[in-house]
Amino acid sequence: KFSPDPIGDTVPTAIIVLNGAEQAIGLIVDSVSGVVDVDLSARLPAPEVGAATQTEFITGLAIHEGDDGEHMLALLDIDRLMETIDVGARWNRPSGARSTFQR
To answer: Where does the CheW-like domain lie (predicted)?
Structure first.
C-alpha cells in the first residue's frame, strides 16, 4: 500500500530515490533485492482486479528471468504516484529545519 504517512523504523530498511518529471523523492522500503533492466516492448497490460487492490499506479507487468527463475514485476507510474503525495506537507521536520525539497 502506498502511503506517505509516517511508519515506525523497520530493520533492515533501504531508500529508493525516484526521479519524477517534477520532483525527486525517497521511498523507505523494507528491502531491495536487485535492480533489473526491463524490455518495455514486452510489457504486459496492467491487471484489472477488484477494488481491494490498489492498481491505479501500475502501468503494466513485465516478466524477468533471474538466476533463481522467472519473476513477475509490477511497473509503476512514478509521476502519477508522486502527484498523489503532498511531499512538503508530510515531512516531519524539527522547528527551524529547512527543507532541501525543490520543485
So the answer is: 1-87
